[in-house]
Amino acid sequence: MNAYLLLKSVHIVSSVLMVGTGLGSAFYMFFTNRSGNVAAQAVVSRLVVRADWWFTTPCVIIQPISGIALAHMAGWSPTTPWLALSIGLYALAGACWLPVVWLQLRMAAMARDAHAAQGALPKRYARYARRWEALGYPAFIAMAVTYYLMVNKPALWGG
Asked: C or N: which end of the chain has fewer Cβ atoms within 10 Å?
């Protein structure tokens, strides 16, 4: 296997881990938040934070490094329309993900404390959950479109 194909494999696997972890975490957090079960919310929110640190964060770092290297090796300019749009969408997803990480940390702490006190979650938890969810939709759509662009490399404007 040559260096390009090895790097491409790393890029693909890290993208699958990144988006897959995000989608799985979103699924469990979304439904657990609607359960009203504070114990479940404490466990799931803690594990979602852990998944972000263990899987999403390394992949978020690997993606641009491997992507830039692949583009360079293939001779694609960053201004190639499908690539430029992919980079912009990745940046959009990242701009959504950073506040999501902050929200997840706060939600996990609130759920942990409420569970330990055998009490209810503060109203702020629901506000944070709505913001967390609202940021997830554009991030996921941006990544889905990025997958399309990466696979199909369509001729867009001027291309």
From this structure: N
pLDDT at residue 158, rounded to an integer: 66
User: CB of 96 within 8 A of CB of 136?
Assistant: yes
pLDDT digits over 136-149, tens only?
999 999 999 999 99
Contacts of residues 108-115 at CB distance under 8 Å and 24 or more positions apart, as own/partner, are 108/42, 108/45, 108/46, 108/48, 108/49, 111/38, 111/41, 111/42, 111/45, 111/46, 112/42, 112/45, 112/46, 114/38, 114/41, 114/42, 115/38, 115/39, 115/41, 115/42
Look up the pTM and report it: 0.89
